[in-house]
Description:
This protein has helices spanning 3-11, 26-40, 46-52, 58-65, 73-83, 87-101, 105-118, 121-124, 129-132, 138-146, 156-162, 169-181, 209-225, 248-268, and strands spanning 185-187, 193-195. It is mainly alpha-helical.
Amino acid sequence: MDCSDLNEKRDNMPIKKPNIYDYKDFRVFLKDFYEHKKSLNPSFSTRIFAQKAGFGSHSYLKMVIDGKRNLSLKSLKKVGKALGLEKDEASFFNTLALYNQAAVEKDKDYYFQKLIELKPHKKLFKLEKDKFAYFTNKYLVIIRELVALPHFTEDYEWMSETLGGQVSPDDIKKCVEALMRLNLLARDKEGNLIQASGTLESPVDADSLEIFNYHRSIISYVKDVMIAVPQQNREIISITIPMSESILPEIKAILRKCRDEVIRCINQKDKSFDDVFQVNMQMVPVTKSRKDQR
Length: 294
């Protein structure tokens, strides 16, 4: 058997059936499901897929997968049936689609909480259970760092005002209580709130839906406040440049080193902090790679 025969056999090997609970985007799941079915039956097509879902046109389903159209509630039920999902899986798929398609942050947060409830617990936690909640609510992170400010006062009205009124005093109180249960805040001998441990980080290569939602909410928050923050208090640097996928690990290492250098610089300086800042570094592809276009 020559190498070409071996490669042909590999190309014809069935693709593993995708698990809906492993996905952050229902469109990617639909694409992988289609490729799985195609690997089992070369005659399987988007037309057949659409017919199973009860759609008159196969182009509609293709446009959904390509992100050009959304699925309605009625269409979701049809697609779920065509996918042959179990009841719980279908509920997760429907909620994931609504989460991905939601245009308002409040709706995204609502569907995200539903996803957490629907996701099997055996797959739910990539962090320790008690630390997990810290990375699914951006306000828990911000409030914990707010406590480190020298002018901090445990006044929930003041804290709400400091956060721009985005969180009510009652909700801030709940966040503080949650942080104390998580052992991320504590009280000193005088009863004052203090940070109970050092800086926490999510795993650098975390790919869970939970960490994805946290980063999404942070990026959305920065986008919303960017106009209101004066130039001297913000810095946004962007480059668009071609690069090889082979050097992505090296670029990631540079970004992480930069993050560590920022932390070192802050820790070496005067601790008379003024405000809590969000420092973000992003690297994302903005074009389709050649292999994606095959």
